[in-house]
């Protein structure tokens, strides 16, 4: 378990407190009590798990699509989703199925060689644009993620792009407007995992470090020693700034990619709730000043293997492999 900021501060106090002086007469116990009094005790936090009567279900988009789904989206990659946006990206979907990168992280060796979007032009018209990858790359993904990362009113697309030699990386695409019309262009890219058939799975987007800018979170190699990674969005790069071990947000070969949730409690930085490598217990992790992970309570065991986490207020709905559902709550 990660040490809390309060505990680290108190340990530092013990190291630098003088042996003599006003506290000298109190001895070691006096020093200890003085250091423990430096800060109020940390607020007790933790995860609670209770039975959930109904099946877990998402909240849906919550807004009507800007445009009807274009007919071209019907030809999208099998088992992938066409996703609706809210501003200048009406729809995004994956296409050009290919076997040129036969990795089965998502259950099939068939991946996308292109991404397509229905975008609004400068003239206000809706047009379909595409971005086609070179022969050494694929989109090893099934769900385009649409988000306004820089909060400028124009949306970006976050995807997993894999290279035949260097493995997977996160890539952010945006809409550029030129004389020939709009096009999808690369805005930023994270590090490649490092070798063929090494994958990563995104967690989501939030301001994890409290600097007022959105960050990305993903789990690198979730099947063989998962590492939770936080990344700053600093075009043209996605720069890792925090890592935590013993996590996973995917089962090898599963189509399901939603196995982690971001929980925002009032007055606190966002926390990430996700399984450990066995997927039989849950972590609740928060990145706190001055730059460290805080584990919000003990590792929480589950009565089975978790297959999906669906966001709920203050936590998640967990679907287990045997079909049972649980209510996961992060308590303040």
What's the short version?
This protein is mostly beta strands. It has helices spanning 5-16, 27-36, and strands at residues 46-51, 83-84, 89-98, 111-120, 126-132, 137-139, 145-147, 156-163, 167-178, 181-189, 200-206, 215-220, 227-234, 237-245, 261-263, 271-275, 281-288, 292-295, 300-301, 306-312, 315-320, 325-331. Helix 1 (5-16) packs antiparallel against helix 2.
Write structural notes for this entry.
The protein is mainly beta. It is built from two helices and 22 strands. Strand 9 and strand 10 (181-189) form a beta hairpin. The longest helix has 12 residues, at 5-16. The protein is globular and about 55 Å long. The two termini are 18 Å apart.
Features:
7% helix, five-stranded antiparallel sheet, globular, mainly beta, disordered N terminus, 332 residues
Could you outline the blueprint of secondary structure elements for this entry?
Layout: H1 5-16, H2 27-36, E1 46-51, E2 83-84, E3 89-98, E4 111-120, E5 126-132, E6 137-139, E7 145-147, E8 156-163, E9 167-178, E10 181-189, E11 200-206, E12 215-220, E13 227-234, E14 237-245, E15 261-263, E16 271-275, E17 281-288, E18 292-295, E19 300-301, E20 306-312, E21 315-320, E22 325-331
Antiparallel strand pairs: 1-22, 2-3, 3-4, 4-5, 6-8, 7-8, 8-9, 9-10, 11-12, 12-13, 13-14, 15-16, 16-17, 17-18, 17-19, 20-21, 21-22
Helix pairs in contact: 1-2
């Amino acid at each position: 378990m990660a040490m809390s900021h309060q505990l680290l501060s108190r340990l530092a106090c013990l190291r630098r407190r003088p042996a003599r002086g006003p506290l000298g007469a109190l001895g070691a116990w006096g020093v200890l009590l003085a250091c423990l009094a430096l800060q109020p005790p940390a607020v007790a936090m933790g995860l609670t798990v209770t039975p959930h009567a109904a099946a877990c279900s998402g909240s849906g988009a919550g807004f009507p699509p800007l445009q009807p789904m274009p007919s071209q989206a019907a030809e999208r990659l099998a088992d992938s989703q066409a996703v609706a946006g809210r501003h200048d990206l009406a729809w995004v979907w994956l296409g050009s199925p290919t076997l040129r990168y036969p990795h089965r992280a998502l259950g099939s060796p068939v991946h996308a060689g292109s991404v397509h979007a229905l975008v609004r032009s400068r003239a206000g018209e809706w047009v379909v644009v595409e971005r086609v990858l070179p022969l050494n790359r694929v989109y090893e993904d099934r769900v385009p993620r649409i988000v306004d990362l820089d909060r400028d009113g124009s949306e970006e697309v976050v995807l997993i792009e894999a290279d035949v030699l260097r493995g997977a990386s996160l890539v952010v695409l945006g809409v550029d407007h030129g004389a020939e019309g709009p096009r999808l262009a690369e805005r930023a890219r994270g590090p490649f995992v490092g070798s063929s058939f090494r994958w990563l799975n995104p967690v989501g987007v939030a301001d994890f470090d409290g600097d007022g800018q959105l960050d990305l979170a993903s789990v690198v190699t979730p099947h063989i020693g998962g590492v939770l990674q936080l990344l700053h969005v600093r075009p043209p790069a996605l720069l890792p700034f925090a890592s935590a071990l013993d996590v996973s947000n995917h089962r090898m070969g599963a189509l399901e990619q939603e196995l982690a949730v971001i929980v925002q409690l009032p007055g606190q930085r966002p926390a990430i709730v996700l399984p450990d490598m066995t997927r039989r217990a849950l972590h609740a992790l928060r990145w706190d000043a001055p730059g460290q992970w805080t584990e919000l309570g003990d590792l929480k065991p589950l009565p089975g293997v978790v297959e999906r986490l669906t966001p709920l207020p203050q936590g998640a709905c967990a679907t287990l492999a045997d079909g049972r559902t649980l209510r996961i709550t992060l308590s303040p």
